[in-house]
Amino acid sequence: MVAALTAAAACAPSTAVPGGRGDKGTGTLRVWLFREVDNAPKAAVVDRAVAAFTKDRPGVRIDVAYIPVETRAQRVKAAFNDPRSAPDLIEYGNTDTAGYVRDGGLADVTAETAAWDEAKDTDPAARRSVTVDGKAYGAPLFVGVRALYYRTDVFAELGLRPPRTLDELAATARRVHRERPGLYGLAVGGAYTYGALPFLWAHGGGIAEKKGRGYVSTLTDGRTKKGIAAWTGLFGDHNCPPSSCAQMGGNATVESFASGKAAMAIGGDFNHRAVENGKVKGAYAVVPLPGVAEGDIAPAFAGGNNLGVLKSSSHRTLAVDLMKTLAGKRTQADLFDAMGFLPTFTDVRAAAARRQPFVRPFVDTLDAGARSVPPTPGWAAVDAGQVLPVMFQEIVSGRRSLDAAAAGAAKKMNAAFRK
Question: What predicted TM-score, i.e. pTM, was given to this entire model?
Fold first, then answer.
């Protein structure tokens, strides 16, 4: 699922494009969507939505192309730089928004979305994912969020309950590994940025904050360092040895849980099928990742994808209307049923949870307040440079102290934000 992949921001193009070339009411609209591993269900939903859109629009044709996620950076860069070959509407990762806006690729659709009745039910995190400097540059398509998977059989055998605080999570992980040495108590990964961020946020810290017209890193803030310490403290022979876990990313941690090698893991709603297909099927449950205090839910990273109209489109009105159709409530509900993509509309998501109860912990996590990365083009360089994973790995390997590693990472982040 693309929500798991959007952590890697696309390379930003270097040349801004001119404005749109008119606003034709007929002709062919070109759409680029991401190709899924199993794309047929997604294509079927899109085909139905496109058929409904064109039914009452004679002279309008929709050409949908499914592009590989791995090559999206090059494709989008070429589209931004050559309007003649560009599509009218694209699917893009929500961490790409600021970079695409900086490079002049996306159209400002603030007025159109403000007048869109369905948009009032969009959850705040999803709305922020299409917003730069108070202006909307698209419509959220789906959201992905993570929660805590745990082994019900192991917990029953050891008389454990699902942890209710982050301290209890760490204690539970240590006990499981002590009594079941063949299991990681909690699978963690030194390259698992989006598993680590809730620990920083739950302790009142963060990645960066707005200062003037730009952003500055907050990794050296005392509250952030408490969160970093809580995350990196999970690495060690008491739970998940650095020799095995320092290089693991999100997929590897989920795979370790699904294969029966871990009693707990932080995984997404989009990982549900992989876990169901693993050895732990029928012997696991999911709860929101707890916060510092009992009753709190740790803020999760809100991943996901958006749809945006290119500024170069010669069919702006049609493209915006198609965007609303493909990102609208009916299509989001159909995409959930077909692909498991979590809707960005709160009412549609609540209905989805009633149909499929497994998503309830993820919905509760979103309702508690999810967050994203700083909405700045500099984040692409931070992400591509693996700044946070390197920091975590330096700490868990003992190569640098927490203070030194955080200061070094902050310096790299600030350099990226200034460019």
Answer: 0.85
